[in-house]
Protein 1
Amino acid sequence: MDKKMLKRTRFFISIVMIIFIILSSRLAYLQIIQYDYYWVRAEKNRLRIMPITAPRGEIFDSSGRQLVTNRPGFTVSLVDLGKGYSAETISRLSGLLDMEEREIREKIQLQFYRRYLPIRLKTDIDMETVAQISEHRLELPGVLIEVQPIRNYVLDDFAPHIVGYLGEGTVHGWVAEHWEENDYHYQPGDLVGQAGLEMVWEPFLRGNDGGLQVEVNSTGQAIREFERVDPEPGYDLHLTIDAELQLKVQEALQEAVQKQLEEENNLYAGEAAAVMLDPHSGRILAMASIPSFNPNTFRQDFPELARDARRPLVNKAIEEHYPGGSAYKMVTSIAALEEGVVSRNERVHCPGTITRYGATKSCFRGHAHGRISIFEAIQKSCNIFFFEMGLRLGIDNLAYYSRQFGFGNQVGLNDVFGEKKGIVASREYKRSVYNEPWYPAETMDTAIGQSYQSNTMLQMANYTAMIANGGKHYRPYLVERVVDGHGQTVMMAEPELVYYMDVSESNWETVRTGMSAVTLPGGTAARLADLPVSIAGKTGTAQVVGMDRDIPPHSLFVAYAPVEAPEVALAVIVKHGGTGGATAVPVAREILMHYFGLEEEVVPEEHDLQGEEVIE
């Protein structure tokens, strides 16, 4: 071999050796120095921790009837296989899931912390969609179909304002604070309670998710299972609500509303609410708000629900307040008796119409009751009597006793958020809102439950309960007990006395006697006179301040029963339903008959309703 060829051979050997040294060095670097890094990456590509969603706690009524449970459903998720999220995959999923690409990308951005974990794109998909995705599985790398528990509201539109619903999204303000107090944290994109019990009791209902370590193939599909950590189910809630009673209350309210809309051609009707509770504990036995909605179809129905002028998403039992009309007159009665401005035997002359301080006021159609006692004034709802009591007391005394009954403040329901305080008519309120002085004629209106006075139905039920039990204000509650996944009771509600209103027993008895006469012939709720259960009550016909006189007033009725040993206190309102005796009383009749197990055998006779009130 000549020198020239030898030189070339040595050159090529040197090049090969250099390349070999470089490759060997690189191999050593990767396999020795970078071993841990690439081992972790390889394991991440091969192994996944698939979260197992914990079943939410179930909800039961007072007798153990299942109200809210979970059913299996399919969820489509997307996982990053280490190369990011394929634009083509997102585009195809957009069509299959009927979602905008922008919506999918927003979910990915929102849940960036879940890299290498499934990002749930859509839950409760139908079998047709499952089949389509399965058919194109090889073309959709990183797309998973998981079976997860889906919330199921067994009775559809049963008490949705109480039960609530789930949804994605961040909660703020007092809800977030409440969850933090219970050391509860969630991640953006999680389904969490958005209203009612689902929201307030979220920290207890949620449970703890489990996980499953699996080996996946190149498309992200699981091919082998390894370790498994089972989820811990959430706690179950057992309520004070009786399902059959609740359904009856909803049905009675809905029928009253439909009658106003269809038979009476009342274009202003369409809303109603009722609350029934135990006056000796605060247990809420039923609480209904009409119109309602179905939590099972809430997402689909939301656009229509949001546009509905009747605001079906608002709990009208606690989130709206109304003038009480003559149902307020027991406040005036107790105030007058306690302050000594009237005695139980004094009679006040009712000429039918009076003019005081430049204002002309009247009873129903100017009907003159003559000389009338406080018993008869409550029974016949004589406005003139209570106008006189209002002037004798003054607005400051009326405001004081209103607050004693819990008006102008939250009653204290903690199981469902949203309770409003209502308004106590007073000098302070008018000055703060209108910057105007108070006039005596306004005191007369306040004495019969008009003027600025407005109350929630929960407040009205609590007020009635306080009359029945002698001034005890118990905190109302909906959750009787909380049970863990092993069937052990971890929390049990106890009656909580919030306040005691110190009123002489003789004055309580005077007012109770008047309320008992309301449901007898000659009273404004005489339609209840034929029932075998003794009922004490008070009707209310409340004109809406500032509205046209042709618009029907609100129809109210409050009651407790039996008179001798009260078991229930009830408040009913049919918004723009007319007089209390004509609309709210029949609703209360149906509710009370159901509660006491009575059968409707005969149509009640029409009694003389001359005492029924109207506000002019």
Protein 2
Amino acid sequence: MNGRAQMNIVIVGHVDHGKSTVIGRLLADTGSLPQGKLEAIKESCRRNSKPFEYAFLLDALKDEQAQGITIDMARCFFNTAARDYIIIDAPGHIEFLKNMITGASRAEAALLVIDADEGIKENSKRHGQMVSMLGVKQVTVLVNKMDLAGFSEDVFEKLKADYTDFLSRIKVTPVSFIPVSAREGDNIASLSERMAWYKGSTVLEQLDQFTSDKELQEKPFRFPVQDIYKFTRSNDDRRIVAGTVAAGSIQVGDEVLFLPSGKQSAIQSVESFNTSPKHFASAGEASGFTLATQIYVRPGELMVNPAEPLPEVGNRFRVNLFWLGRAPMIKQKEYKLKLGSARSTVKLAEICNTLDASDLSYSKSKQQIDCRDVSECILETSRPIAFDTTSASESTGRFVIIDNYEIAGGGIVVENLSAGESLLQQHIRDRENKWEAGLVRAEQRAEVNRHRAKFIVFTGAPGTGKRAVAKAFEQGLFQNGMNAYYLGVANIDRGLDADLGSQSDSAGERLRRIGELARIFTDAGLIFITTIDDADDYDIETLKLLNEPNDILVVNHGENGFSRFQPDLQLVAGGAVADAVHLVADLLKTKEIIIDYQI
């Protein structure tokens, strides 16, 4: 890190309104091009009898010269005396708008380019809405191609008035409007003599006037956990928590908290590849950390400093969402949400209001979110995740939604609503209100069966021996004349869950179906036994809810991966099966689920 301030700028606008030309000019006028690049491009154009365009300077957009349109997201770098800039070129075509979501999500300010000759287009409105929706508060409008409008002040003022009126209706206050001719260089790096009536800042001056609410390094520490690396050679038992620091900083010895699990430890070392030993990591750095205590954490958790303001944790939140999916977003359908390193299935729980970005039609009664709608809505994930509202920290408050392996929407988290009733709780309440019971009571079943019903979950890491113990326990119960049934996960995957395929995104639905089966089997008076790999607190809480009003027992094998929940029985990994079975039987006798158990 060179110590200089840095800012990310996104540039957006309708196709052919001149975004790439603006970027080319910024690169050229700040001396940010490789030596000889400008001359080489001009010579190439001369040899091919092609008019020179500053847009051709963007090496990252080589396809643009052949196709005439920008089809990829490009990141360009230049600097002024004040700071370093990364400028992100977001495509203007409707079919490429989904890429813009990713680009704008990294930006602190935006330049919105409008052609003075063509005027305000449909995409100009959409871009303004999207940039605002994604929490980019600083927007400058560049009225480009003023040379085609005769450098007319009247044309500029008319477009400025019309677009200001539009922006005010979507609650956006632009920082400034600047009349420019990117091709000619007017008002880019120096004020234009051909527009002497304009007394404002040049584009470069305006960039330097943009402010950061707070530098990322100064914000509370946020580290989305990407992966956990384990080493086994030469008695190296380190576990390295890896990812990229999203905000703030941390150093060796600092206490850390993992959310949503709630597990705590302290930084023992800072690890990085091919660098000298480090004791400190800050925003933007790809880093690894070893911890003072060996705790079990999963990718997708958010590591934070408990001494600083904490993020939100929940599975239900109000968002601003821009939808670009081919199919409308509908309630009850499962989508995939990506926020930081967290990945979770998500459902649309409620639509508060929608705005069509093309014609600004407003509705509070829509039952789906259509393509190009902007919506204030409530989303609910299958399990809790850690996040910030964008007013607190933009880097961990923006998300994208995947539908059928494509980015279909993006937005910002506005408010945590997890204290309210969840979709799962609503479902269970409705289910129990309408549960149709038979004439046989639970007490009668227990008397005939000589045991009470119970749902028993054996969990732990793969290879800990839990399946062998679960099967042997079922066999022992059966040999003692009891009604017990072991359900293997493979049986569910190939039967009840066959429609879900092998997608890991369906983990929440798989868990729900196991819980629904448990509710039925325990209602039938059975001792229902199953195994789940690496269950966490939320998995058990979900199964408990789904099995209500009946209860659940949890037997954990090996390392305890829970933070709040305490297993009913803890077994060592790989221990003798017979000994483990007796311990489980003793637990059931203690809880008066079974009366006796004979070898």
Protein 3
Amino acid sequence: MNIKWIKKPGSLALIMAAIVVSCSQERSPVTGWAYNDPTNGGFEKPPYEEQETGPGLVLIEGGTFSMGRTETDVTYEWNNVARRVTISSFYMDETEVSNFSYLEYLFWTSRVFGPTFPDIYYKALPDTLVWREKLAYNEPYVEYYLRHPAYRDYPVVGVNWLQANDFCAWRTDRVNEFILIREGLLEHVPSPSDQDYFSTEAYLSGKWQGQLKQKLPSFDEQNPERDVRMEDGIFLPKYRLPTEAEWEYAAYGLIGNTIGERITDRRIYPWNGHGVRNATDKYMGQINANFVRGAGDYMGTAGFLNDNADVTAPVYSYWPNDYGLYNMSGNVCEWVMDVYRPNTLQDADEFRPFRGNVFTTQKRDSTTLIGGLGGEILTNVDGPVYQKFKHKVNNPTTHGVSGETAEVIDSVLTIMTNDINGNNNATQEGKSDIPGRVQWREVSSAVSTDNLDERRNYKTADYINYMDGDVNSSIFYESGEDAYTDKADKLMYEYAKTSLVNDKSRVYKGGSWRDRAYFLNPGVRRFLDQRQANAWLGFRCAMTRVGSPVGLGK
């Protein structure tokens, strides 16, 4: 991991000293009792300044902007009608995730899960065959693009939406693990196994079985030591994909066009002006992004290549926008979190708009419930896919290939086929059934502890279809008592019959090395099934900003 990006807020010793010296005399403004006092129970107020900036991230200061179309809708889809919304501050990767960063993820996955659960590694592999075309010779990219060092700084492609989410989950755990090691709380384990690798959610739930170096001192006389808690502010929030609104807001970089509260120039691209060439005196005429300039022109004429890239370009190519983000137009399109619906921009909230909510809660053991509450949090031990895989490896048969190799291939193909058909329980909304991680389930009215009958802001788990695809919005449903009958036969979006839209259709944004200039506009919306990948589609991660939207000193 490239640790230079992590800003160290202070050593653990200084933090503990600050607790004892500066906080021991502070008292509650509502009760008068002292914080951090063992004699009254030891309720703690840890010192905290602000959120630490994670590796690779740039702070995107939020605000209001006009989301959607900024020029003629040449595709006549009318799926991005302009609307003013507000985005909270958040963090986003400076660049697209590179081949080398993804290879780090594959190396770790192979090292930890390979000996016992090799299918986890195989499921993480990008689809390098996306480079193949029927009437083009792209085999060199199939063989070399992912792993050859010449392409290590190029954006990873062939990654579907589910794999991108798995990468984000892995990155969250590795960054938080490094923070605990840095602060002297965690033993560095050079070779973790599938039994003791660090998981942030499992640690916070008390289910992690790894090796601690030391614990934090506690002001509770009965428990002098304790684990790190969410209240300490040591852990970073989860890495994730950005929402469509966040990605579009960050791409425009309108902070560079703001005087006071007035945006002086509305942008078509992440840079000023109506053209795709640089207008400054020093770089006059140079291309601002990697895209197709015209029919058959992917990189220009020999001796003066217009974008200096035949396919993708290194992630730090061209000029960053005013947030310091590279390649927010061109190079590769990028996955975002949202489920695609054509009317989302008209229906979604004005504050932090997003479509794709499926509300979940941690699974708990019903046998340990006390008075109908609590219960032990469950983690994955052996999911059904992995039990099946191990059984097949331990009992090899022959399917055209002999020995264990044949069974590995057969198992992996079975997993992939089930996932494509939507029948695999191992992956739901990007959460993989990986041993050691906390299990999650959708909230349900059938579970009394979820208390959905008492809620007013939501009554069910899945709101993907809300106002666009549900009973109330569909012209195919009947009203009255029969509204929900034969629901499967009266879908608003009949996938592969009248539409390619379903609940697995995910939005991707930005133009790519295969697109014309029109698609460089951040407001353009396109979608693809979350289980598919392409040679022109990559991703970058984001992270929620907690607390002040501007940070210290402003």
Protein 4
Amino acid sequence: MEFSKLAVYIISIISLIGFQVGLWGIFKKASKNPWLSLIPIYNFWIWLKVLSRPWWWMLLILFPFISIFMFYMMIWKTIRLFRKTSYIPLLFGTFFFFVYMPYLGFSKKEHYTKLADLSKFKKSKSREWGDAIIFAVAAAYIIRMFLIEFYQIPTSSMESSLMVGDFLAVSKTNYGARIPMTPIAFPFVHHTLPLTKTTKSYVEWVKLPYMKFPALQPIHRNDIVVFNYPDGDTVVLERQNESYYAIVREFETMFNPNSSFEEAKRVYYKYGDAYLSKYAGNYYPGKGRDVVWKEYHVVARPVDKRENYVKRCVALPGDTLQIIDKQLFINNEPANNPENIQYSYFVSDPLGSGIPKKKRKELDINEEDMQTVNDFTTLYCLNAEQKSKIEKMKKEITPIVDEATKYDNAIFPHDPRYKWNKDNFGPFVIPQKGVTVTLNDSTLVLYDKIIRNYEKNKLTVKEGKIYINDIEATTYTFKMDYYFMMGDNRHNSADSRFWGVVPEDHIVGKTLFVWLSLDKFKSWGEGKIRWNRMFKKIE
């Protein structure tokens, strides 16, 4: 058993024992039968009677997620019955209830007082404001953690289905709210403290294993899902917007220009992070200029602190996925393409006038996706409606499609034996929990990251033989379900085609609706607010 998991189990057992011991002593002081503290659920009913709270609180206690807030609310009310009014005992009881409750229950210095006999605590204005702020922050934090969270779309990978500047409401409950894996963290921020570029917002000396509340529904094909970026397990702080593994491949190619990529991967697996830290740097390959280096800082991030991505789930565990000339196939059947699916096109105009900026704004063309090819040709990412309107402008439009035999090193599994690219991919069977696959030299490249990084096994290859946790293996059985995610802007989306499948423990939530949409390319006078997208349900 991993040390972190063992520590969690030990802390959980100590917390439960401390809570039960404390409740026994408090029941006894309140003239209740202490044995009742050992009966699950019913002990909370008796605890409410000790606190003189209404019966309907029990409904809130039994409600998922709200129960966490109610538990601490009852601890605070219990502390108040022992005539404690300052913030110090409240804070101590919040973080160390398993110690403080037994102290209140068995200390002869501490005396229980019925709520009716308790003198009214007159709060100062500052105390009233302090209590209100603490309550609001605690409630908002619990809602954000377990119920619903808001995200902003930063890139065009889902254009035009979701647009840059869309603010999304994301449900944590639909797929089952995940228990925080790094529970000690600065509230309301993700992985980096505000006003800093690299300072972590969390500590890792307390880690929880992957656990979640029951789901209201499974993930369906074509759901738009928020998840933690799988390639974000390791990050180069100076290049956080790029895949660490892509950077490694970049430098391996640069340092070993005459070696095969398979040889480069073996070097990486042998030296790992130390190799990148030793050799990596910003380089300027200008003609006649020496390479300029500076050290990079490489860090690992826990699952729940990796970047949040939003994509469409196009394939479920056990599905067979294939892309042929841009068309997605699932289980040998053509998949339904999203209504606003986008591809890249060369738009040429021999007269050189191109598409006027005013017209681009009218068509909602994302200008960040534009690439100038020459004086007469520009690359655009367009959906069917935009393409049709541009064709009516008498522009020459040429679709961009990678040939089936073209090998793209950036595409998963980054091995020349799999000549896949973003337009021709697979067939690939999505890993499913409990399913066993055969391991050999050619299949290992498909599953090595799953076995090593996601499912935390020791994986080595010696003399052509595969060893998992030092035991020779010819097969492997998956411990989790996996999902294949793609952006609707198919030619401008870093998705599962580039970095592989998404493990179930990386799933954050389901997108519900757009509550605000701001067009970064328009001023307020030009219609910056996209009113037609406000509170639009995401299908």
